[in-house]
Structure formats: structure tokens, C-alpha cells
Amino acid sequence: MSLTIPARIVGLRGQCIQRLDVEDGVHGLVLQCRRDERHAPVDHRTGLRGRPNRRLRRRVYDLPLMGRPLALEIEYFEVAVGRSDRRTEHLDFVGPGSRYTHRLGHRVSALCRHMHLSAVARMTGLA
């Protein structure tokens, strides 16, 4: 069975969704993404366009999808700024070096205002 999910609905600007995998264990669903070549790479500090240096991949965690924990395997560029300066590309949905999306951070923050920390940890699957 095939499932088509537009990246715009999921809110992953600059990413193209390739497939949705089901993993046993902690990471219920893994959304495999590749970088959308239509968007020019932008430095996360200055906001200026840069020259792509190399492709990088990492796993970040997002809000649950269909009641199961969701991990995103994203692809992004290391941007060359100047002769020797290398920085990570700006991504709208996740900060540089962060392991969680902005919306998961906002959800956890909102839940912590109204619930005990251990209940939030159980609900989100985070330690």
C-alpha cells in the first residue's frame, strides 16, 4: 500500500518526502526525506545564499503521526560562506544542531505549563 504525503501539509519546507517506514521499538514511524533542489541553500546565521559544500543527513523528532512517535530523516547542505567558513543550511522547521522540531518543542512547552513533567514524558515518549 502506498501513502502520498505532500511536504507542505507536514510543514517541511525545503524537503521532499520519499517514504514512510514503520520501525519496531521507540521510533514508531520514520519519514525519509531528501532535500528539495528547487530551494537555494541559505546560511542560518546571516540569511544570505551560499554555495552548497556537501550534503548532510540527520534524524530529528517531531509530533506523533497517527498516534505513533515520528522521526524525520532529513537531508540538508553544509553551506560555504566565503573561502573557508562552513555553516549549516537554514531550515524553517528545526534549529541548527537541534534534535527536535520547533513544533514539538512548542507542544512540550505548552504541556509542561499544565501537566506534571513525568506525565509529559510519558505522553511524548521523551526522557
What is the strand content?
Answer: 35-45%
Q: What is the chain-wise order of helices and strands?
A: HEEEEEHH
The count of strands amounts to: 5
Query: How helical, in percent, are the residues?
Result: 10-25%
Backbone shape: globular
Distance between the termini: 33 Å
**What is the count of structural domains?**
1
Number of helices: 3
Largest sheet: 5 strands, mixed
**Rg over alpha carbons:** 16 Å
> Helix- and strand-based class?
alpha+beta
Low-pLDDT runs of 5+ residues are none
How would you state the average pLDDT, rounded?
Answer: 86
Description of the structure:
This protein is of the alpha+beta class and 127 residues long. The protein has one domain (7-124). Helix content is 20%, strand content 38%. It is built from three helices and five strands. It has helices at 7-10, 102-114, 117-124, and strands at 15-22, 29-35, 51-65, 68-81, 85-88. Strands 1, 2, 3, 4 and 5 form a five-stranded mixed sheet that branches. The longest helix has 13 residues, at 102-114. The termini are far apart.
